[in-house]
Amino acid sequence: MNDIKERVVSLLMSKKLSVNRASKMFGIPQRTLNRQVNEDGKIGMELLYAIMDYFPEISPAWLLLGEGEMLRDEMAALPNVPFYSDLPVSAGVRDAYNPAAEKPTGYISLPSQRAECYFPVVGTSMEPEIHEGDIVGVVRVDSLNEISPGSIYLILTNDSRMIKQCYPDNENDGVMWCVSPNYPSFPINKCDITALYRVVNRIVTYY
């Protein structure tokens, strides 16, 4: 069962939840939920988070990735990694924020995860590698000189937050290039970067 929509439908059936009842339980408009579950709409992050919040016995690894069984193994101690559903990162450019000052909206527990925190993605400039609606897990990079050319990073400046492939500038050590398939490449001064995170996990929410 590789499709996240199939897993959501299977879960609702196992809980004997109609779209109407699930809509009231999760606080999601019935029309929106029906479009996501029964029509051609993609499964929204609000629905996934509501499921994990209301049904802690459901394995996030199964729900999000299709790994393992539907019910969580209570003997497995999985780390709770903060998930900021209200702070999407942009495949274009978005206003900056201070992670240390923000309160997570929830937590994601996945086996063998390396991420320090998770964020939803908006924008399409990183497609087809990362799609709008995906959730990315990131880890902090201690030095701007340690970037791996071609890897994807979450870049924070005083004015913006964005995910891009990063490349060093061969002629200027104080500059690196931000590259994406569907957005013009541009240079950024390293001195303008307030924090850099490498994308190490990607949760696909729509197939």
Provide the descriptors you would attach to this structure in a database record.
alpha+beta, 434 Repressor (Amino-terminal Domain), 2 domains, eight-stranded mixed β-sheet, two-stranded antiparallel sheet, 5 helices, 28% strand, elongated
If you had to describe this structure to a student in words, what would you say it looks like?
By secondary structure, this protein is an alpha+beta fold. The protein has two domains: 4-65, Orthogonal Bundle (434 Repressor (Amino-terminal Domain)), CATH 1.10.260; 81-203, Umud Fragment, subunit A (Ribbon). Helices cover 21% and strands 28% of the residues. It has helices at residues 4-14, 19-26, 30-38, 45-54, 60-65, and strands spanning 81-83, 89-90, 106-108, 117-122, 135-140, 152-157, 161-168, 175-180, 183-189, 193-203. The protein has an eight-stranded mixed β-sheet with strand order 2-4-5-10-6-7-8-9, with no helix packed on it. It has a two-stranded antiparallel ribbon with strand order 1-3. Strand 7 and strand 8 form a beta hairpin. Helix 2 packs across helix 3. The mean pLDDT is 82.
